[in-house]
Amino acid sequence: MNAPVRIQQADFSQDEEIRALRSSSKRMGGIATFLGCARDFSEGRNVSEISFDAYGSMALAEMNKLRNEAIEKFGLLDARIVHRLGTVQCGENIVFIAAGAQHRAPALQACHWLIDELKQRVPIWKKETTPQGETWVTSHP
Amino acid sequence: MNAPVRIQQADFSQDEEIRALRSSSKRMGGIATFLGCARDFSEGRNVSEISFDAYGSMALAEMNKLRNEAIEKFGLLDARIVHRLGTVQCGENIVFIAAGAQHRAPALQACHWLIDELKQRVPIWKKETTPQGETWVTSHP
Amino acid sequence: MIRVIFFGPVADCVQSREMQLDYVVGMTLHDVIAQLGAQHPNAFGIVSFIAVNQNQVRDKQMVLQDNDEIAFMAKFSGG
Amino acid sequence: MIRVIFFGPVADCVQSREMQLDYVVGMTLHDVIAQLGAQHPNAFGIVSFIAVNQNQVRDKQMVLQDNDEIAFMAKFSGG
After folding, report:
1. Contact between chain D and chain C (3 or more Cβ pairs less than 8 Å apart)
2. Does the residue C58 lie in any domain?
């Protein structure tokens, strides 16, 4: 089975991630997920594709820390974080977070916390390709 | 394509629901989902299966109202709600909510709001089968 | 005719999912509750919501119309 | 030897992803910033985070060790 925290070029399947997550416990009553995808429009400009650069080893270490912190902080049964690198076409998947708990509130709260923290703490950078050229994204929309 | 709001005996695929959700807009940057599953343990008792009864026509009408309210309230691009009826084995899917928006915050907030409201407003009842017999669930854990 | 329907825990208590009552001009929701509540006190003890024609109703003085569908429901536990 | 690495927007400004600096006993993070910042002012203008051996560092007086890996990073924009 794939590791629960990954950085990869390839796309991923939500169903497979969920299957892996729930295989960790039969006590799991609530699973919250967040999927970030490449939009065709950002800050008033058309976007055709997005490419990502990362400090890979540190990014993976930070994502593992985030997972452990979330499990501890929200009492999760399990959590998974997958982020793609390389070039992602408009409409494709970028990032996936899943949090599983006995009840729904901690799963939902942990999922929200994880994506907010990931954006603040994980060294990954996004460059958007538009008709006007390429631009590194610096805001946290 | 399946309707965005459904009550059905059959299981569903998260990947298919997400595909249907995102097909509604290329502006979708964030998709939050909640999946409720049957746990093997509830209120201190082992649970082998859960069966559901519903006031079908009213439940479907309420779920459609919830979807419309969430789209309006959170500015969603689309949302889907699926609830299973009949008998669900321990570990299986019960309910699925997906909310898609341009940015992550409204998608995550809408998803949390939808599952909380569904539990309050949709006429569905859950019966747990345990070694001690069958019990209708009355709390909102 | 008034159609009265029950689901889940209430249907189990009443041991029925559906009943029909004769319609009388001017009859209210309260009249139906009084009649059925006397016959099925346990079931009506767990009724938390009432819907008439699939809309939740809180005013028990509501005057019914012929062919109305009334649901007496326990607290919901879906999801 | 000190290994200095750049990513994303900072790497584009520096026009390089990696540099090596000679290690001098007692040298601090501040010394490295002063040296490279003078050569690449635009790049260092967008540096928001610094990591030494993959741990974020805020104290620029930190004394470096031989073979340290320093990353100068713009504000993150993943997710």
Report:
1. no
2. yes
Q: Look up the CATH number of the domain holding residue C47.
A: 3.10.20.30
Side chain identity at residue A37, one-letter code: C
pLDDT digits (tens, 9 = 90+) for D35-69: 999 999 999 999 999 999 999 999 999 999 999 99
Q: Which domains does chain A have, with CATH numbers?
A: 5-137 (3.90.1170.40)
Task: For residue D9, tell me if it sits in a domain.
Answer: yes
C79 part of a folded domain:
no
In this prediction, residue B139 carries a pLDDT of 63
Q: Which domain holds residue C52?
A: 2-73
Three-state DSSP at A104 gives helix
Tokens of D26: 């007692």
Tokens representing D67 are 């073979």
Q: What is the DSSP string of chain C?
A: -EEEEE-HHHHHHHT-SEEEE---TT-BHHHHHHHHHHH-HHHHHT--EEEETTEE---TTPBP-TT-EEEEEPPP---
Query: Closest Cα partner for B35 from A64, A33, A72?
Result: A33
Please give the residue of chain C at the shortest CA–CA distance from B115: C79
Residue A21 to residues A4, A31, A36, A75, Cα–Cα distance (Å): 8, 9, 18, 15
Residues of chain B neighbouring C6 (CB-CB closer than 8 A): none
ipTM of the complex in this document: 0.93
CA distance C43 to C46: 6
Instruction: Please give the angle made by the CA atoms of A56, A59 and A37, to the nearest 5 degrees.
Output: 95
Q: Is B136 on the interface with C (CB under 8 A)?
A: yes
Say whether pTM exceeds 0.90. Answer: yes
- Chains C vs B: touching, with 3+ CB pairs under 8 Å? yes
Per this entry, what is the length of chain C? 79
Q: Which amino acid is at B40?
A: D
- Which class for B13: exposed (0-12), middle (13-18), buried (19 or more C-beta within 10 A)? middle
Domain count, chain C: 1
Integer Cα distance of A129 and B54 in angstroms: 49
- How does pLDDT run across A13-72, given as a tens digit for each residue? 999 999 999 999 989 999 999 999 999 888 788 999 999 999 999 999 999 999 999 999
- The answer to whether B18 touches A12, Cβ cutoff 8 Å, is no
For residue C46, the chain B residues in CB contact (below 8 A) are 138
